[in-house]
Amino acid sequence: MTPLQRYIAEEIATDHIEGLLTRREAFRRLALLGVGATAAGALISACGTGNKPVAAPAPANSGAPPPGMDKVVVTEPITWRGPNGTLQGAWATAAEPRGTVLVIHENKGLNDWVRSVAGRLAGVGYSSLAIDLLSEEGGASAFKDPAEATGTLGRIAPERFIADLKSGVDEILRRVPGKPAGAVGFCFGGGLVWQLLAAGEPRLAAAAPFYGPLPDNPDFSRSKAAVLAFYGELDERVTASKDQAADALRRGGLLHEIAVEPGADHAFFNDSGPRYNAAAAVDAWQRLLGWLGQHIG
User: Where is the Dienelactone hydrolase domain (predicted)?
Assistant: First the structure.
């Protein structure tokens, strides 16, 4: 099992433990990932042995839109030639681009929420591409069951993801020539931001992995990106790696900042999900824009 497969499997198990999935559904999703029943049961038991802190009661929902939605730009579907065929994505054009950003989706594939993130970034001056890492399988829209999309992503070799992401960097720089580039990713996509940095992609001026799994023993010395890494205080599974991430960034000589959002859980930025934390999302958005402004323009 690759580190990304392990991460996805643990996420499914954690969702069951926290009451977001029934046991039957968790076993079904783990089976789609290639995890047998015995191993699935052991994984769920192992993930349930922690002492996760309890969140404070969330404030009443103010009804305010997610951060950045007041300036969101509508995305358009695009295709381009990748290393293994045609790649797909959603492109959002800034009126006067200050730079460009590659947006990497969660383990459910490219969906409307990820498109909205690209559109929000374009609304504040960063033309953005939300890449579809299931392009070779016909795109995320070809999967009627999101769990099947997740299972398929878990079976793809990490090397293919890196090649496709580098092609995505090619595309954003082609569309916005002469401007700095960055990468932002969430959950699974946050892990791929880390992997892209470890692969030595030199063209990123800034990177922001949101609660993404850290690769084993990463070497970031070939990257040039300024890294702002986000974690949720209550997301003990992923946040446990923040000190390792900071150490690896220091060893690699990269300018970096680690941001832990108080009272926030995994996926706190996703306003379409059950763990959305509006206060943490607003703070993270403001921090992200400050970071992009400082290191991209």
Answer: 95-295
Its sign, for the CA torsion 278, 279, 283, 286, is: positive
The answer on pLDDT for 259 being more than 70 is: yes
Structure tokens at 285: 């958005």
d(CA 86, CA 288): 31
Take residue 146 and report the two structure tokens written for it. 């999101």
Q: For 104-162, write each residue's pLDDT tens digit.
A: 999 999 999 999 999 999 999 999 999 999 999 999 999 999 999 999 999 999 999 99
Would the pLDDT of 64 be above 60? yes
3-state helix, strand, coil in the chain (%, to 5): 45, 20, 40
Q: Which of 174, 229, 220, 167 is nearest to 198 (CA)?
A: 220
Strands 126-132 and 181-186: unpaired
Q: What does the pLDDT look like over 127-141, one tens digit per residue?
A: 999 999 999 999 999
Give pLDDT, residue 60: 42
Q: Which residues pair with 208 in a beta bridge?
A: 184
User: Mean pLDDT in the chain?
Assistant: 94
How far is CA 223 from each of CA 15, 26, 123, 130, rounded to the nearest angstrom?
A: 33, 37, 28, 21
pLDDT for res 62: 56
Domain boundaries, the chain: 3-47, 69-295
Task: Please say whether the structural domain 69-295 has been given the CATH code 3.40.50.1820.
Answer: yes
In whole angstroms, give the CA distance from residue 92 to residue 240.
34
* Residue 136: half-sphere exposure toward Cβ, Cα within 13 Å: 14
Q: Token pair of 209, please? A: 């992995």
> Mapping DSSP to helix (H, G, I), strand (E, B) and coil, where does residue 289 land?
helix
pTM of the shown model: 0.94
